[in-house]
Amino acid sequence: MDYRIIADSCLDLTPEMKTEGNIKMVPLTLQVDGVDYVDDDSFDQKVFLKAVDAAAGSPKSSCPSPEDYKLAFGEDEVSAFCVTLSSELSGSYNSAVLGQRLVQEEFPNKKVHIFNSRSASAGETLIAMKVKEYAEAGCSFEEVVEKVEEYISQQTTLFVLDNLDTLRKNGRLTGVKATLVSVLNIKPVMASTPEGTITQLSMGRGTKKGLKKMVEEIGKRGTDIEKKAIAISHCNCPERAELVKAEIEKLYNFKQIVIEDTGGVSTMYANDGGIVIAF
Fold first, then answer.
1. 92-106 vs 66-73: helix axis angle to the nearest 10?
2. Tens digits of per-residue pLDDT, 75-114?
3. Angle formed by the axes of helices 122-136 and 141-154, to 10°?
């Protein structure tokens, strides 16, 4: 099957993905105090983090346009699989659906499927890896869609952040007491819900305890771990990611562990020092 994988820029690329270059990224745009940062190859994480730290207001993001997605899908009849941010967290999914309609108006025989990740960051990474795995195994377009949608329904995303301000100020933490993070040095362990929203599971006093509790949560939610991959996205903290990997290896026997640094969108929400895992 001739196919393409498209993703919005909240998908964090592994080093191998960057080298292979087989995923077409559709960038979101980030805004900090009136300055736009396009989340593409020009994105400089350190410059952006400095801008956020010095900003008077909270950073925001805007999703790609339907036309952006239409062009990424390809104006031809090659099949396209697209992975987006949870539709509960961003307009990216709906924009991709509109882009699908636009391209199929011109190319009615073109097959396009939009995967609502119900996740972000590392969660999107693993979904794209699954699309490639099944497509390269010789599955038909319909089989890839069925298998990957099943995978998404079973996937879990967990994260621990040093700073929840951006998520809170952008309305992504309804019902979560984000102020505890700064006032009491409490680090909540957060998770994606089956609907693609964010919920709080537990908490630890300090980052190390928060990360330890996050790793413990894997055992409560993971099944058939030896058959699965786990992804760790980190925001400017590779040493912390390696420590999390080591803790995971002590307790579990995942088939594969991948580590990637966050792209622009994940950097904006995770903030400096944030860790996101998905399995």
1. 50
2. 999 999 999 999 999 999 999 999 999 999 999 999 999 9
3. 150
H or E element in which residue 202 lies? strand 198-205
Instruction: Read off the DSSP letter of residue 5.
Output: E
Both 104 and 192 in one domain: the answer is: no
Residue with tokens 């300090």: 206
Tally of structural domains, the chain: 2
- For the record, the structure tokens of 191 come out as 């998770």
Q: In which domain, by residue range, is 264 found?
A: 157-278
Indicate whether 179 pLDDT > 90.
Answer: no
88 and 11 belong to one structural domain: yes
Q: Are 232 and 258 contacting, i.e. CB atoms less than 8 angstroms apart?
A: yes
Q: What's the average model confidence in pLDDT over 60-66?
A: 97
The CATH number that applies at residue 273 is 3.30.1180.10
